[in-house]
Design a protein that fits this description.
This protein is α+β, with helices and mostly antiparallel strands. Helices cover about 15% and strands about 30% of the residues. It contains 6 helices and 19 strands. The strands form 5 sheets. It has a 6-stranded mixed β-sheet. A 5-stranded antiparallel β-sheet has the order 4-3-2-1-5, covered by helices on one side. It is globular. About 50% of the residues are buried.
């Protein structure tokens, strides 16, 4: 087994929620012990209303009890014929954190920020974990970013302390915060226009409830481009940990069920690696995070 396959195998969740099917016609599914079950008979959609109730628990319980139709072993699913869409239906908003890993700040020559760097990303750029990523017209600096995504489950506004944030988190996903560095950094104004291009946020393939993640600040993260490992780190290297970020953001905006927070990327992006080529048509990105699964996108 290749190092990539070994790492991706170790990353598979024991229990998780997803959405399977063509674009715009995904149906809820649940993964339990490497078997995928059809949950469309008990759940209409994996969205904010579902997340803020007891929907995730009911889905997991039904899967564990064997009450749902079996789709098949997760290892046998071919994403080319059995598409896994984004595990969360269109988020209300995607809030992103920049320069949130010590090594990433160092590689870009930036000082570690005193407060989180915050920007927004168009929710319309979310795609499935195995969907194509499109290089924008006139782009020469399209870059990769493996990130931990936090999914909000309860409305958060003016939280008192970071410790209270845990009760507002529904769970976690893998996010690829694809970025066009010229649009982001060399064209003036806000970062958003280098972050919101079509297909620039592969998400999933699974949504893992927070109760299934033992320590969110101890997750290994990896990304390869054309089989070459570019990123290898851990959420332990975050400057601002997950609970701090949710608390901090709640002081400036209301976080609602189904919102997503991209919590920053570790070292190893093309921007921080001199002489490393940016993405080109035909390149393949592969990503994994411990216990959250793996992604694979071809670039076009």
């Amino acid at each position: 087994m290749s190092p990539i396959a070994q790492t991706q195998s170790a990353s598979e969740p024991g229990a998780a929620i997803g959405r399977m099917g063509p674009v715009g016609a995904e149906r809820p599914v649940v993964l339990i012990a490497q078997t995928v079950y059809d949950a469309s008979g008990i759940v209409d959609e994996v969205d904010g209303a579902f997340l803020q109730g007891d929907g995730p628990r009911r889905m997991m319980d039904a899967g564990r009890a064997g009450w749902l139709p079996v789709i098949g072993p997760s290892a046998s699913l071919d994403p080319m014929t059995q598409r896994l869409g984004p595990p969360i239906a269109l988020p209300g908003k995607i809030v992103c954190i920049g320069l949130n890993y010590h090594e990433h700040a160092r590689e870009t020559g930036a000082q570690a920020p005193g407060e989180p760097v915050v920007f927004m990303k168009d929710p319309g750029c979310v795609v499935g974990a195995f969907d194509e990523v499109l290089i924008p017209r006139r782009s020469t600096k399209t870059d990769w970013e493996v990130e931990l995504a936090v999914v909000i489950g309860r409305t958060a506004r003016y939280l008192d302390t970071p410790e209270t944030a845990a009760g507002h988190i529904a769970g976690y996903c893998i996010s690829n915060d694809v970025s066009e560095r010229e649009f982001q950094l060399e064209r003036g104004g806000q970062w958003d226009k280098g972050k919101s291009c079509e297909t620039f946020n592969p998400l999933g393939p699974w949504f893992v409830p927070a109760t299934e993640v033992a320590d969110v600040q101890a997750l290994d993260m990896h990304l390869w481009v054309n089989g070459v490992k570019r990123q290898a780190s851990s959420t332990a290297d975050m400057i601002f940990p997950v609970h701090h970020l949710v608390w901090y953001l709640s002081q400036f905006m209301v976080l609602r069920p189904g919102d997503v927070i991209n919590t920053g990327t570790p070292a190893g992006v093309a921007l921080g690696l001199p002489d490393t080529p940016y993405l080109r048509s035909g390149d393949v990105m592969e990503l994994s995070i411990t216990g959250l699964g793996s992604q694979r996108q071809r670039v076009r």
